[in-house]
């Protein structure tokens, strides 16, 4: 597979994973009413996501160094996909959303650090920065799509329908990552 096609598919995969990052915040006004949450409770759910995501970034970085970026990316892609579906199906109020969105955050960072590592392994220094820029921009596109799409779907079928967009994005990300990385070597850095 050409480097350009590999990067495009990895970027679309990252975009899919990024849909979950803001799907909850897009629906806070509606969820506060539907789930009878105070502003503090609504903010705590979003904070649980961010706390989990920070843990995920550290864990993904450590796992990439120990087991290789490809293996870490794929393993965490499965976790991100599963946690997004669990959130979409089972978040029904403050407590469940706090726990499940926090858990989704813990699973979501595996496409960021390992993805950048995979790009660094594949691209020469002269084109590496541009490739990483495309990858980071793909996540921003995912955030924008999530904000718009989650709101539209929630208006048609309720919050769970909006959250399903994020879950389906994670599934798309997983499938594309598995396809794209199937021939990519898993490089485990030598111990220092």
Record keyword descriptors for this entry:
single chain; mainly alpha
Question: How is this structure best described in words?
Answer:
- By secondary structure, the chain is mainly α.
- 82% of the residues lie in helices and 0% in strands.
- It is elongated.
- The two termini are 32 Å apart.
Structural class: mainly alpha
Shape, per Cα inertia axes: elongated
Number of helices: 9
Percent of sequence in beta strands: under 5%
Could you give the count of β-strands? Answer: 0
Residues in helices, as a percent range: over 70%
Mean pLDDT: 94
Largest sheet: none
In whole angstroms, how far apart are the ends?
A: 32 Å
Low-confidence stretches: none
Radius of gyration: 17 Å
SSE pattern, N- to C-terminal: HHHHHHHHH
What is the topological layout?
Elements: H1 3-18, H2 23-26, H3 28-34, H4 39-67, H5 69-90, H6 94-108, H7 113-122, H8 125-157, H9 159-180
Put the structure in a nutshell:
This protein has helices spanning 3-18, 23-26, 28-34, 39-67, 69-90, 94-108, 113-122, 125-157, 159-180.
